[in-house]
Amino acid sequence: MLDQFYRQHGSRMRAAGEGVQWVARNGEIVAGMNLLPVAAGHWLTGLFVAPSQRGQRVGSQLLEAALNATPGPVWLFCDPQLVPFYARLGFINAESLPEALASRLARYQRSKPLVALLRAQSSATSSPGNSTSV
């Protein structure tokens, strides 16, 4: 379902099978993202908001719901232009990364500029299932 949403909008993003997929709906999926377990936290990938929904806080609300339900730190890689968006949501520059993410970031940075960010959290308020909607 999330893969279909990504394809519908021409995105190369993919839903990660081993993670938790989050979606926002307005009758149909209007935003989606993945949280993959890594080290003692999660790696956020694939945050995408339908172009018609951008600027309406859909991405921010989806991300906040997911982060509030997710224990531990959350890391992500993003284009430097997106840092202000994530900073408003409590992300800071990641000074260190789990090895699995550090090696992946090094590979990705060979072809595009990316910044690693972190949002530290201590505990979740709930436990989502394998696929959760907000």
From TrEMBL:
Pfam families: Acetyltransf_7. This is GNAT family N-acetyltransferase. PROSITE patterns: GNAT. Residues 1-115 form the N-acetyltransferase domain. It comes from Pseudomonas fakonensis. The lineage of its organism: Bacteria, Pseudomonadati, Pseudomonadota, Gammaproteobacteria, Pseudomonadales. InterPro entries: GNAT_dom.
